[in-house]
Amino acid sequence: MVNILKADLFRIGKDRIWIIVLAALLIVYTIPGLYTLKPMGGMSLYDQGLYMDLNEYVESRLPDYGVEYAYELTTEQYREIVFSFEGYKTDVDIICGVNFPLFEVIVVLEVLLVTRDFSVHSIKNTLSSPIRRKTYYFAKYAAIMLLSVSIVVVVNLMVWIANMIINGPERSLPFGTLIVITLLSLMPLTAYVSMIHAVAFLIRKSLPYSLVTIGTTLAWGNILLNILLILGGGSARVVNLIAYLPSMMYSAVTCTHAEDYVPYIYICIALCVTLTAVSLAGGYLFFKNREIK
Amino acid sequence: MKETIIRAQGLTRIYGRHRALDGVDITINRGDICGLIGRNGAGKTTMLKIFTGLSIPDEGSYELFGKTGEQERGRIGCLIDSPAFFGNLSAHDNLKYYCILKGITDLSKIDTALERVGLTNTGRKKYRNFSLGMKQRLGIALAILDEPELLILDEPINGLDPIGISDMRDLFIKLNEELGITIVISSHILSELYTLAGRFVFIEEGRILKDVSKEELDDECRVSINITCNDLSRAAAVLEEQCGIMDYKITDDRTIKVYDEVNENFLQDRLREEGIGVMSTVRKGISLEDYFKMLVGGKANG
After folding, report:
1. Do A121 and B55 touch (CB under 8 A)?
2. DSSP conformational letter for A131
3. Distance between CA A217 and CA A202 in Å, rounded?
């Protein structure tokens, strides 16, 4: 298993274009992400979820600035209002919001390490050497998990440091909280990697795999989520479980000590464990006796 | 008695309704060069894929080096179908990747393998820019990288030029004779297979039609030199006394068939030196291709 990891790292090291793509994605997810936060005057995709009552707070402060709508505020006025919101941290929104889109980067890793092996048929060489299918399946999983965890840790750290420099320590999470949030977010990450790893062994070709996984991730955010919310009748349980991603719940619990979220976190963890087990076992059983072309 | 390297019994592989392999029994002994002959879709690649772990049989079983399971697969080197490598890596880096993967620490084996297949001068050239022949050579280099005990080659000379074919033939013979590597090889180029293999397995529609040694095949094809001359009794005496030939047959009043492997010109010269009038010497007999056609019934290639 260690040999597969070493060989994959050697191969990725030779793949400069993909390293540049990954590095660019990591940078895009951090510094520009911070500058597009609403308090910075931008239109961020990320700052949602944890401070759900922030908009209400801004609305309540509008009369102080003699305006009727929030868009009439200047950037400086907006920053002044949100920064006066008790305990407002600018990095936690990015950290909890970035995890879901960041998962799409993991698809790139799966393409690099697994589906490419199927696409160029180099898997024949690997499996006809003494590499067992079980070893191959789980070594690739371990390699992708290792790289994914590294990416999440690096992004979270980069956001934290960048935010510390841009917005100051008073708007940054304590380092201990950052570690707790990062560790907790590894749970959905593991479930997600397990799922897309199993799907990689089902689809096996890079292009259709990328289209299906990235497409599903996007569709989940934009279409499926709304359908599930409608089907769930807008109940608080469904909203909390689906609309607010697990990492946001973790953030809410660790940052605001909101006990309301604790039961949902248990459900999330149970779901993640089940998904991980089912995906890994299903993917391996499918691959175990499959003909290699 | 030779050690059995591969022993398969009742190997069956079914794709949908098609039985690609249908109860195949085969034994390969150490030191053999076994040629698999069959048309496209006959089941050659399927059988080789099973031995290399790329396909799982639906029925039947097989042993590698006297053991079941995958533990002995490390003693095999193979090239199945077309070679497959990473396009963005050079020949050296592609082999290095597999060295790391297989835990081969002696990286000088890369240069040895590349030298054996004549790919030492490719430098940093990426695999995607290789010609078909170069790709094929790299595939063979990977197969022999770790000096395996058994080499499984599925149409390894496809895409090679005549010199490349000759080089690879010499390489396979050298690996077999000097390193004692057992070789199982399939090819559509029957004449090439004939010069290389010592044993031939004919496959058709997933079944083994015939499994013969080269001697048996020669005997069945009965290749002979047909000499037409004016004095058969004296010619027979010359063949026996001066050329040491005992395996011959006088077929009519002017023709004598020599079955021993001997140079035609040598025979002609000896007979003429004794004043025998030689009208013609013709090598005759059924070719491997004709023999194969005869076995499979001469059906159109699928």
Report:
1. no
2. -
3. 17
Helix (H) or strand (E) holding A85: none
According to DSSP, the residues that pair with B38 across neighbouring strands are B203
Going by C-alpha positions, the residue among B277, B249, B58, B79 that lies closest to residue B159 is: B79
Tens-level pLDDT at each residue, chain B (302 residues): 678 889 999 999 999 888 989 999 999 999 999 999 888 888 999 999 999 989 999 999 998 888 886 678 888 999 998 889 999 899 999 999 999 998 888 989 999 999 988 888 888 899 999 988 889 889 999 999 988 999 999 988 887 888 888 888 888 898 899 888 999 999 888 888 888 888 999 998 899 988 888 888 877 777 788 889 988 888 888 888 888 888 888 877 888 888 888 888 888 888 888 888 888 888 877 777 788 888 877 554 43
Question: Are A105 and A25 spatial neighbours (Cβ–Cβ below 8 Å)?
Answer: yes
B70–chain A nearest CA distance, Å: 7
Scored b (16 or more CB within 10 A) or e, A163-198 reads bbebbeeebbbeeebbebbbebbbbbbbbbbbbbbb
B59-64 and B18-29 beta bridge pairing: unpaired
Per-residue HEC secondary structure of chain B comes to CCCEEEEEEEEEEEECCEEEEEEEEEEEECCCEEEEEECCCCCHHHHHHHHCCCCCCCEEEEEECCECCCCCHHHEEEECCCCCCCCCCEHHHHHHHHHHHHCCCCCHHHHHHHHHHCCHHHCCCEHHHCCHHHHHHHHHHHHHCCCCCEEEEECCCCCCCHHHHHHHHHHHHHHHHHCCCEEEEECCCHHHHHHHCCEEEEEECCEEEEEEEHHHHHHHHCCEEEEEECCHHHHHHHHHHCCCCCCEEECCCCEEEECCCCCHHHHHHHHHHCCCCEEEEEEECCCHHHHHHHHHCCCCCC
Cα angle: A273, vertex A278, A282; to 5 degrees: 155
Instruction: Spell out the residues 6+ positions from residue B294 whose beta carbon is closer than 8 angstroms to its own.
Output: B286
Whether residue A237 lies within 8 A of chain B, CB to CB, comes out as no
**Which H or E run contains A173?**
none
d(CA B251, CA B276): 18
C-alpha distance from B55 to closest chain A C-alpha (Å): 5
Partnered with residue B256 across adjacent β-strands are B227, B250
Mutation target to probe the B interface, by most B beta carbons within 10 A, among A6, A8, A21, A128 is A128
CA closest to A8 among chain B residues: B97
Residue of chain B with shortest Cα separation from A5: B101
- B176, B183 in Cβ contact below 8 A? yes
- Cβ distance B81 to A124 less than 8 Å, yes or no, reads yes
- Find, among A204, A225, A206, A228, the residue nearest to A216 by Cα: A225
Q: Give tens-digit pLDDT for A95-121.
A: 776 666 677 778 888 888 899 899 989
Residue B145 sits at φ, ψ, to 5 deg, of -50, -45
- Give the closest-approach CA distance of A5 to chain B in angstroms: 8
Whether A53 and A85 have beta carbons less than 8 Å apart is answered as no
- Based on C-alpha coordinates, what's the Rg of chain B? 23
Alpha-carbon distance B276 to B274, whole Å? Answer: 6
Q: What is the mean pLDDT of chain A?
A: 80
